[in-house]
From TrEMBL:
Sequence ranges assigned to domain SDR-like Ig in this UniProt record: 76-169
Biased composition (Low complexity): 390-400
Keywords: Cell wall, Collagen, Membrane, Peptidoglycan-anchor, Secreted, Signal, Transmembrane, Transmembrane helix
Protein name: Collagen binding domain-containing protein
Gene source species: Fructobacillus durionis
Localization terms from the record: Secreted, Cell wall
Domain of life: Bacteria
Biased composition annotated in UniProt, kind: Gly residues: 375-389
């Protein structure tokens, strides 16, 4: 072999070796990509099992309305606090999975005092569902957790949920029979709501409260003085004190007005605003207003705000207002603003459990009469904290509704064995190629 021939042979050998080296690398990269896509495909297939929305008609076996303010009454008062109770019996064919939801409508004519959230737990503390109460949308949404899914594999999930509510202004008629529609299985609870009373002619001072429409931690307070009692006020003062440390006074919100009450103290006309110089903050959570001298046909409306500071963990927030007239102190008007505090319980072995008791503020806020004055016309302040006075259990048989159990199943079972399968294929092919390379480059030419 000549030198030139030897050189050509070496060049051809190098080119051939380069080809055989590049090809396996390309194959390895391709296999790696395929394995990655395969494992990703399994992951994507897993995600195709989306959470489903359960149908309340299939899951709620009973409802009940009872009175928290006056349990022994046979009729309802517009400002009572009522308690709605749902009983669950979720059969195994619902196939609950973690993340599935059940949305219940707030019964017609009723509204929660505020937004709320809480857990429904089994007796041993397992969280079966997380509950969110949305006042604006009028819904209660349950999102199920893994313990509910496990329990539902072999038995029906049973339990109860309770929620304090009030009558919704404009949605019910005082002095008449009203039908409370639960929006489930056609169940309706008939209630008779007593007529609204006018203030007592001897009432000297009265107080009420309500939540801000957009700020769940802001409470508006209103005090009316000398609405119908026809007192002549001499060197009068009004003092207000916030109770506890769970909410604080918003000093800039204090306003007081001299007014003429009309229409049984349900409305008023503003005579003048009391100057800010006559408002004196006497402590972090208290203040006094000098109202001076007023004729018997004039009274005062005092308004201010407090802000919740404890994360809404208290069942209610309170304060009290009093007055002095000609050096004599009058009675104190207390008011408590309750928050919605729902509760519930679930079984873990087909055993119904009693729901967690619902905290009730002390004293229970039951303003009488309807505290809805306004400034000479227009919409009234919505100050009612509601309830009703009976214990009504619905007995209407549930109608058979279509079930919503649509699911997207994976193309392959989502198990560790399947996930590892693509990796094993990749490793086997890589080993085979490596063996081939060893044979190729280990061969002597």
């Amino acid at each position: 072999m000549t030198v030139n021939q030897h050189s050509q042979y070496k060049s051809q050998q190098k080119a051939m070796m380069a080809k055989f080296f590049i090809l396996p690398v390309v194959v390895l990269l391709a296999l790696f990509s395929m394995a990655t896509l395969g494992m990703k495909g399994l992951t994507n297939a897993d995600s195709m099992v989306s959470a489903k929305a359960l149908n309340p008609n299939d899951c709620v076996s009973g409802v009940k309305l009872s009175d928290l303010s006056h349990p022994s009454d046979t009729t309802y008062s517009y400002y009572d606090t009522v308690q709605a109770k749902w009983t669950f019996n979720i059969p195994t064919d619902q196939d609950i999975e973690a993340g599935d939801t059940l949305t219940l409508p707030i019964p017609s004519g009723l509204t929660p005092l505020s937004d709320d959230s809480f857990d429904i737990k089994s007796p041993n503390g397992d969280v079966f569902a997380h509950v969110v109460v949305d006042k604006e949308s009028g819904t209660v949404k349950l999102t199920f957790e893994e313990p509910a899914s496990i329990a539902n594999k072999d038995h029906a999930v049973k339990g109860d949920m309770e929620l304090p509510l009030t009558f919704k202004g404009g949605a019910v008629t005082p002095g008449a029979n009203n039908n409370i529609d639960w929006g489930i299985n056609g169940w309706v609870t008939p209630v008779h709501i007593d007529p609204n009373d006018t203030p007592d002619a001897t009432e000297e001072i009265f107080k009420w409260s309500y939540f801000d429409q957009t700020d769940e931690n802001l409470i508006h307070w209103r005090v009316r003085y000398n609405a119908l009692s026809n007192m002549t006020t001499t060197n009068g003062t009004m003092t207000d004190t916030v109770y506890g440390t769970n909410h604080s006074l918003v000093a800039s919100s204090i306003h007081a007005y001299v007014v003429n009450y009309t229409a049984g103290a349900q409305h008023y006309n503003v005579v003048s605003e009391i100057p800010a110089s006559q408002v004196h903050q006497t402590g972090t959570n208290s203040f006094t207003v000098n109202i001076g001298n007023l004729p018997s046909n004039e009274g005062v409306v005092l308004e201010y705000d407090t802000r919740i500071t404890d994360g809404r963990i208290s069942p209610a927030y309170g304060n009290g207002a009093t007055f002095t007239n000609n050096g004599v102190q009058g009675p104190t008007a207390d008011a408590w603003q309750a928050v919605t505090k729902g509760g519930g319980g679930a079984d873990n072995n087909d055993t119904p459990v009693n729901p967690t008791p619902n905290p009730t503020p002390t004293p229970t806020p039951t303003p009488t009469p309807a505290p809805t004055p306004n400034k000479g016309g227009g919409d009234n302040d919505n100050g009612g904290n509601g309830g009703n006075g009976n214990d009504n259990t619905n007995t209407k048989k549930a109608t058979n509704q279509s079930k919503n159990r649509t699911r997207n199943y994976t193309a392959l079972p989502s198990t560790a064995k399947q996930d590892n399968h693509a990796g094993l294929i990749f490793m086997s092919m890589a080993t085979a190629i490596a063996a081939g390379l060893t044979g190729l480059f280990g061969r002597k030419h």
